Structure formats: C-alpha cells, structure tokens
C-alpha cells in the first residue's frame, strides 16, 4: 500500500470524524485509530447543590470482577433473536464460555469469559453499541 493511499484514508477519517478505520484490498490491510486522549472539553461551572446523604444501600458499590469489551461494536446476548441468551444472571460460567457476541464490521466475534465465576449483572442491553474496554458483565465477588 502506498503512502498516497494511506494519506487518503487519514483525510477520510478526519473529514468524517472517525475514530477507527480499517481497509483491506487484495492481500494488503491497514487499521488506523485516532488518539483522542488529549481532547479538551469546556465545562461550565455550576454552583454545588446540597444532596441528601446516601443511604447505606445506595452507598454500596458493586465489587465483583468485570468482563470488558475487547473492541467497539454491537453486543448481542444471543446467537439470534429467537434463541435464548448465552448467559443469565446467577449462571455459573467457566473461562472460555461464550458470554455474547460483538459485531464489528459485519463480523461476529464471540465474547468469551476470561475467568470462571457466577454472573451477577449484565451491564449492557442486547443490540447496544459497546466501546473498547467498556464493562459488559459483572461477576459475583
């Protein structure tokens, strides 16, 4: 792939404000990702508002281990709309079990458990877009 084609792809990313771009032709493939870590956002200053003290139940923060999305895509909880979900709350899973599917660029990628445990909470809905590193499943602590 020549530098002219790469520059065209970078220009396309900037023009369309894309964070990721993957391109393949013949036996050549390129994946581009924009670094957005240094974006600044102006936040208006708002006077603090007194809030009631949290109750002991709402103060409890979930402490289970998380399973996160390895990529940006659409999360599917079942193999097809008519099938039951891969996992349910309270279900015991082993490392390697399929927890769901993440569709990225029309490719269905299994989301596999990286650890064994009991599902405490499914943090995303079926057909919801997930980001890289976004928590998807919480295991019981």
Automatic annotation (TrEMBL):
Pathway: Lipid metabolism; fatty acid biosynthesis. GO terms for cellular component: acetyl-CoA carboxylase complex. It comes from the Bacteria. SUPFAM superfamilies: Single hybrid motif. Keywords: Biotin, Fatty acid biosynthesis, Fatty acid metabolism, Lipid biosynthesis, Lipid metabolism. GO terms for biological process: fatty acid biosynthetic process. Residues 64-140 form the Lipoyl-binding domain. This protein is a component of the acetyl coenzyme A carboxylase complex; first, biotin carboxylase catalyzes the carboxylation of the carrier protein and then the transcarboxylase transfers the carboxyl group to form malonyl-CoA. PANTHER family: OXALOACETATE DECARBOXYLASE ALPHA CHAIN. This is Biotin carboxyl carrier protein of acetyl-CoA carboxylase.
